[in-house]
Write a structure and sequence with these properties.
Length: about 300
């Protein structure tokens, strides 16, 4: 039975052989490899001993490949290419890498970012604030690698999982007749105007205005604003009320109060990444975020 034990080839010897085979000359190969010619000859002989075949015929006119050498040469080149690629991939994996985490207003990602830095000291991990409507675009444009944000936003091409829920609250000016209530229902605010954000996604507007209401009605329109942050001014001045996420609604400013609203679906805080992103840091952040970003929003 033939010996099937694995052969422990020395890649350095294989590289020496390919140099000689390409030059068809030990002297020129030795110059390229920057080794002494007698040493190169000995190294190629060692390879031939390992393989148990003669690879090169040495003649006064030069060096020729034997039949075994002709067969071995392309395999040797392929072996060296594979080894070089494996080394390159290993070096790339070990090099410092980057992860950018986006987060929306009022959401805290610090515990997850700190843990990522502790567990992956080779990586540059940073957090960046995103506007209320930037979550999906920032991911698909590769400005960020992960996002912690509130639904709703378009989720096609994304991997999205819920981290936790926040009850929604009604934001009212502090001198509003309802400002002293412990809780509200939709019927209490049926006639209260709500601001519209110019060019906002219709599904986003419908969610935060709770439209349509159970009776099919729409919220009365308040002022049209250009930025989400402007709603606080129109609320404080008594021009409109608004819904917000519970944790975000507390302590916004002293002239605005946040009252819990019953019978309304809570706000979903989610972790979103690109659906096709299989990066090790993204996978690690997903795991960490699910472990530590519970009620930290």
């Amino acid at each position: 039975m033939a010996d099937t034990a694995p052969l422990d080839l020395d890649l350095r010897l294989v590289r020496y052989f390919t140099a000689v085979a390409e030059h068809r000359h030990f002297g020129r190969a030795a110059t390229e490899l920057r080794v002494a010619q007698p040493s190169l000859s000995r190294q190629v002989s060692r390879l031939e001993q390992q393989l148990g075949v003669r690879l090169l015929d040495r003649t006064p006119q030069g060096t020729k490949l034997t039949e075994a050498g002709e067969v071995f040469l392309p395999k040797a080149k392929a072996l060296l290419r594979s080894a070089d690629q494996a080394a390159a991939h290993a070096r790339a994996a070990a090099q410092p890498s980057h992860l950018t985490v986006g987060y929306s207003m009022g959401l805290i990602v610090t515990p997850a970012v700190l843990q990522m830095r502790q567990k992956h000291p080779d990586a540059e991990v940073r957090a960046t604030h995103l506007k209320w409507d930037e979550a999906r675009a920032a991911l698909l444009d590769h400005r960020v690698d992960a996002v912690v944000a509130r639904l709703p936003f378009p989720t096609d091409q994304l991997h999205v999982t819920i981290l936790y829920d926040e009850p929604r609250v009604v934001l009212l000016p502090s001198d509003h007749p309802l400002a002293q209530r412990d809780s509200l229902i939709l019927a209490d605010i049926a006639n209260e105007p709500m601001p519209r954000i110019r060019n906002a996604d219709p599904s986003w507007s419908a969610y935060w205005r709770v439209e349509p209401r159970p009776d099919g009605s729409l919220a009365p329109d308040g002022p049209v604003i250009d930025a989400l942050e402007d709603k606080f001014e129109v609320i404080a001045s008594g021009q409109a009320i608004s819904l917000s996420a519970g944790a975000h609604g507390n302590g916004i400013r002293p002239d605005i109060v946040a009252i819990p609203i019953d019978g309304v679906e809570p706000s979903h805080v989610v972790l979103a990444t690109r659906a096709d992103d299989r990066g090790r840091l993204v996978a690690a952040f997903r795991k960490i975020a699910h472990a530590v970003l519970t009620r930290s929003g």
